[in-house]
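To illustrate the input format used throughout this study, we show a single complete record. The first block contains the structure-token representation of the backbone; no residue identities are included at this stage. The design step must infer an amino acid for every position from geometry alone.
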């Protein structure tokens, strides 16, 4: 609570709050009349300050009342409301959605006003409603999912790395049960591909598969999207089923579940334990039969330690655990994936590309792929757009920033390898020469054994580089 004398209210707010924030600020006195209304708030509500200042709140916003207005509710109760969603119509009849924190202003234990800090979520709220409506269109009135032609199956999963094959085997076993699944994999490794493959090979294949990224929306919107809303739960709310109801009989894929707030995780846990969902603002428990496949892009154990995932929720969803290895640990799969993406984009882009050059393949094999398979796919698509009459993707076809990233990764890769080897050093001179040989060899390969370019990137003269090439017996490769 803010304890201030009446005459200092203006000075405190104007000098200490308004100049330093971008959020909307709306302050009313004990009679409900607006005394402060800043420019960001005017922008949110599409009004001018002189249309609001000095007028009672309900004159300006007739769609609100003593209960639905967060400012008036705080003025009457004296209790702070934090991160509360509010939807209402402004003076022009336009629907506004905001996330508000509203605080009473108190003098000598008497409430003399209220201040509201508002963040505009009108566009996000509208977008979330469109998402729900689009998802509902995928579901027939009887709950059956309309036929989807383009979805992933296990035939879509490409790779022969032993750890990757193990992950596929676990996923195939998971498709034979209805237990919850937790998939761990870095961004771009194909978590949704695995989730869809499990669903479409399960007994639920003819029921809905619905995916939701938990990091894409703020908590207040995500709760309504997951559990649905009941008319009157907040101004502008309508009776609408959430994703649990829409996915009834099928599978709900919750990606980046570690980004979901702990309080929302607790509500999710209750739904999973009881197999009932209650809409936001509703009183009726609705039975559901939904299989949960959750995914996280960070190690779930670390997420628990960092208080990003509730331990009890982890135990509930981690019935079947699938770990997808990153692409940097699947080197033998890189050429296979490259061939697959070349064939795919040949059809899509009407190209006739056969392969990538050896030096580019070497660079790809030395790259650490922080974006994993998705990044590789984007590289191939980008490169093939640059290919005109040729049949081979070469270094000149990849964007300059990509080549720069690869060179940085080569250096980082060498550094990591050398750190691991440092434990076994016996002779310092031999060790340093081995480092130099590896660095020169890798940069030569990355530059297609171009002496001038390699010497420039290494920061040494051509003559010095040629001497070292002979010294380390790299001259045959460099010809």
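Output of the design step:
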């Amino acid at each position: 609570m803010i304890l201030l004398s009446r005459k200092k209210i203006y000075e405190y707010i104007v000098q200490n709050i308004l100049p330093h924030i971008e959020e909307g600020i709306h302050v009313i006195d004990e009679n409900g009349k607006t005394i402060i209304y800043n420019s960001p708030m005017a922008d949110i509500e599409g009004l001018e300050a002189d249309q609001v200042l000095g007028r009672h709140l309900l004159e300006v916003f007739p769609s609100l009342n003593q209960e639905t207005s967060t400012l008036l509710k705080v003025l009457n109760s004296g209790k702070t409301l934090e991160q509360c969603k509010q939807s209402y119509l402004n003076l022009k009849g336009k629907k506004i959605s905001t996330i508000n924190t509203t605080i009473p202003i108190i003098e000598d234990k008497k409430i003399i006003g209220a201040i509201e800090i508002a963040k505009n979520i009108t566009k996000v709220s509208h977008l979330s409603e469109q998402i729900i409506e689009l998802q509902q269109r995928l579901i027939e009135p009887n709950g059956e999912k309309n036929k989807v032609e383009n979805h992933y199956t296990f035939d879509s999963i490409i790779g022969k790395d032993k750890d990757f094959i193990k992950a596929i085997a676990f996923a195939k076993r998971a498709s034979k049960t209805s237990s919850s699944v937790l998939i761990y994999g870095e961004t771009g490794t194909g978590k949704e591909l695995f989730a869809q493959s499990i669903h479409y090979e399960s007994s639920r294949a003819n029921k809905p598969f619905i995916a939701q990224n938990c990091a894409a929306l703020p908590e207040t919107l995500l709760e309504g999207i997951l559990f649905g809303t009941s008319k009157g739960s907040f101004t502008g709310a309508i009776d609408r089923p959430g994703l649990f109801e829409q996915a009834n009989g099928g599978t709900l894929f919750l990606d980046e579940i570690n980004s979901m707030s702990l309080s929302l995780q607790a509500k999710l846990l209750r739904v999973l334990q009881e197999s009932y969902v209650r809409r936001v603002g509703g009183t009726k428990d609705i039975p559901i039969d939904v299989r949960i496949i959750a995914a996280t892009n960070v190690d779930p154990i670390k997420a628990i330690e960092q208080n990003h995932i509730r331990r009890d929720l982890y135990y509930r969803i981690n019935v079947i655990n699938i770990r997808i290895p990153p692409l940097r640990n699947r080197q033998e799969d890189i050429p296979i994936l490259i061939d697959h993406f070349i064939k795919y984009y040949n059809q899509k882009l009407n190209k006739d590309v056969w392969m990538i050059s050896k030096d580019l393949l070497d660079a790809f094999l030395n790259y650490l792929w922080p974006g994993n398979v998705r990044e590789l796919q984007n590289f191939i698509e980008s490169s093939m757009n640059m290919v005109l009459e040729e049949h081979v993707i070469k270094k000149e076809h990849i964007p300059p920033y990509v080549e720069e990233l690869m060179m940085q990764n080569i250096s980082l890769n060498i550094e990591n390898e050398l750190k691991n080897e440092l434990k076994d050093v016996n002779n310092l001179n031999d060790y340093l020469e081995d480092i130099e040989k590896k660095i020169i060899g890798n940069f030569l390969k990355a530059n297609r054994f171009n002496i001038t370019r390699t010497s420039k990137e290494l920061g040494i003269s051509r003559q010095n580089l040629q001497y070292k090439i002979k010294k380390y017996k790299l001259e045959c490769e460099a010809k």
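Structural context for interpreting the output: The chain has 20 helices and 15 strands. Residues 140-149 have pLDDT under 50 and may be disordered.
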